[in-house]
Amino acid sequence: MLPSTGVDQTTDSSGIEPGAGGVGLSDPKYSTVRRKLLDLINRLHNTGVQRDVDLPVIAVIGNQSAGKSSLIESISGITLPRASECRLTCSDAQPWQCIVSLRFVTDQHGQALGHARNEIFGDTIYDKAQVEERIRRAQRAALNPGTKASQFLQGADEDPACPELSFTTNCVCLQIRGSDVADLSFCDLPGLISSVGKGGKESDIGLITSLVTFYISKPSCIVLLTVACETDFENQGAHHLAKQYDPEGKRTIGVLTKPDRIPSGEEAQWTRFIKNEYEPLDNGWFSVKQPDSRALASGITWADARLHEREYFSSASIWSELDPEYQRYLGTANLTERLSQILSELIAKRLPELQDELQNLLQTTEEALRQLPKPPSNDAFAEILHLLSNFARDMSKHLEGTPEGNGLLQTLRPVQERFREAIRETAPDFRPYQRRTKGSRCQTDSSEAAQLQQPEFLQAEEPHAWKTVNDNHAIYVDEVMQRARGATTRELPDYYPYMVVQQYISAITVKWDVPTKNLFDAIERILTTYVRQIVTQHFAKFAHGGLQQSVVNIMNEHIKECCTQTIARVSWILALEQRPCTLNGHYYSNYRDTFMSRYRAYRTNSSSSDLMSKLERYPSALRSVKMTTDFQLEVTTVLSGLSAIGISGTKATDLPKLLPTDPYEPALNIMACVRAYFQVAYKRYVDYVPMAVDHELVLGLDKDGALESVLLKGLGITGPDGQRRCKDFLQEPPNVVTRRQELQKRWERLDTAKKELMDIWM
Description:
Elements: H1 31-47, E1 57-62, H2 68-76, E2 87-91, E3 97-106, E4 112-120, H3 131-143, E5 171-177, E6 185-188, H4 203-216, E7 221-228, H5 237-245, E8 252-257, H6 267-274, E9 285-287, H7 293-297, H8 302-315, H9 317-320, H10 324-327, H11 332-371, H12 380-400, H13 408-424, E10 429-431, H14 446-453, H15 456-459, E11 474-476, H16 477-487, H17 499-509, H18 513-539, H19 547-576, H20 585-604, H21 610-622, H22 630-644, H23 665-698, H24 706-715, H25 722-729, H26 734-760
Parallel strand pairs: 1-6, 1-7, 2-5, 7-8, 8-9, 10-11
Antiparallel strand pairs: 2-6, 3-4, 3-5
């Protein structure tokens, strides 16, 4: 079996005389327009755009030996090889000529080509007798795509022992021009088979069915169904296939072949088709009579064959006795005329639709191309520099901070806040009462302990510092006093070594190491993840060439180097805090005096800690007349009396200083000093550590524009081998390359087809 796709046939029948050698139409009025339309469709087929849009075409189908080839011969006026499959194109009123060409829409592996490739196969033929051999040779070339087509033009006219293919979607195209052929365009498809002969392949059955289905499933395909009268109609699979894809019979034209072989007694059954009574079709059923094998062997001419056909239909009673309205469905000439009309009308109807479809497909294809990554530049080095520059600039912007809610700095803020809280939680929990009094009236409940840990004067600046109190971490006044006495060496009475304060402070600051490491590790982890996301945004399209992963690796190493410097800087800050020191004397003294007053007040009024709380609330309570109590009035009296004797500037919270001396006064002083120093030290520490990490690690990634130079050095593209490395980095994935090629070829054939359509209106 030989290759097959379609046949585009266009003819100009003006000035035809009956029996001149081909079937023509006698009305020259429409021939020019019709020929122009059919030529356009043929040119569109040459672009390969039939892969994208539904082009009008006539597909000739039928079972094997149903008379398809003879039917095509009767229309074209040439002799075809038996079982040949080809494409015909006929046009123009000029001396007869035939051009044979090969149209490749798939490569030798069966993969679709982006753009149809048309190759002229040999010189133009002017002698009809030479066509049959040329077609045979062209078919061999189509079935052996791995061999140059020109090799089949010369040499013996015989089939290869083992052809590469049994069937192919590539086709042999015939352009037949002359004044004695009809205006038509059609595709002759392989005959359907249900079994294979010697040397055949079982897979050929499915291949042929798929090829036929490919054509007739399209809405703009006119199905020319050939049915041999010598075989039971229901056993002819081509009919069932046509009905499957055209169930209402709107685009199927039936052709009864071999009418002279109707078994005796079955004549009425077949005439019912011509009358459109059985299996009715919108365009009806026709019948044609072709020469039998004896006539062909004797070398009957085309003109004699048409004459014998007319004589047969006029003499055979089964056909001659039909009403005149059915006589127009008999003979090749009537069939050809009707086919030409139907195809021309379909083309005229489809042209505006094709314009819209092509325009929409062009826009869709252009959008698909835009969605693909840009193809690699010819100057790979310049493109890499451009990519790195854009990445470094964008990365620097993110390191500085962006307003997005999920920006880098916004992501780091909760981590920094947890660090601040962790350091704040290391504050010493001093209790101004003895551990041995636990259970006595001096013991506070949990709410009072919370008041001691988070006094009201700190709530304004640290509203949520503590939510719970843990007695296991409490430091009682008698324990402080015991440590102070144990540290005394040569000091005078009531003097205690500074070392006690220093030891308490060191015991606090040594706890800052773990929260500091947790902060650093969290920031490093977040930064690494965030940088990887930015790398992906910029270089994901270049993952295939290794550029994305290379940049990720370089950035990871760069982050590690910055981490090493940052760890050293943060460790230095932590080491500074191991020795108590501050020049912020005002705040330290203010905190110390406030804590001292609070501890004294609690010691004096141990049954209740209300004294200091009331004194702290005194200024705000006094503003509201309704809230003024006897206590506030008495405090006002005391403060006024002190002012009257010359002690001015005294605040309500200073009054506990007037309380009598407590034997634990030295311990209370140590507690107040340590607690006050913590407030000063922790506040600067929770600022300086995040600032150092930000400066050395976050902003340090692009310090002095280092990011771009680090990437250039890491990628190694500035050396003698740089250009090659750049090209390797920019390699595209094979699927992207293939997809772009497909889209570009699709765009080219769509654009070519669009221009062909536009030219017809020019």
